[in-house]
Structure formats: structure tokens, C-alpha cells
Design brief:
Layout: E1 3-10, H1 16-25, E2 31-37, E3 42-48, H2 54-63, E4 68-72
Amino acid sequence: MTFLEVNYRYRGPLSPAQLKRLGELAGQYGLRRIRLDEKLSVARIEFDASRLKESEVLHWVRRAGIPLLERVPVDRPAA
């Protein structure tokens, strides 16, 4: 397995129904974890790249009703 993380800005705040659907995605379709930075309106999506392409990840998250906008760089800790 190869895990990758992508970050996408989303239009928020999210409704309780959207949050529920988002929670149901984790663990399915090769999506490992989805974390929201509500202050920055950024969804941090970790997925199994040996099973999914980034375009498929976007498809499933958007299908759950999450309004993803543009990709933002993944923050890396200083070395």
C-alpha cells in the first residue's frame, strides 16, 4: 500500500448531513482518513494510491456532497 495525502479547499461551513456523509467515506473506496481544518476550510484526504487515483478520490468526496474547490499544497514539517 502507498498512502498519499492531498489537500483541497472546500466551501464551508459544512452541514451536519455533509459531515455525516464525509465520516462514512473514511475506510471505504481506499480512502484512509479525511480531516477538516475548519479554520482554513481545507480537507486533508489520505488515500491508498495503489487502489485509487486522485481523480477518483475527488469523485467520491464530491459525490458525498462536499464542495471541493482547488488543491492546496500539503504542509510539510521543517527538517
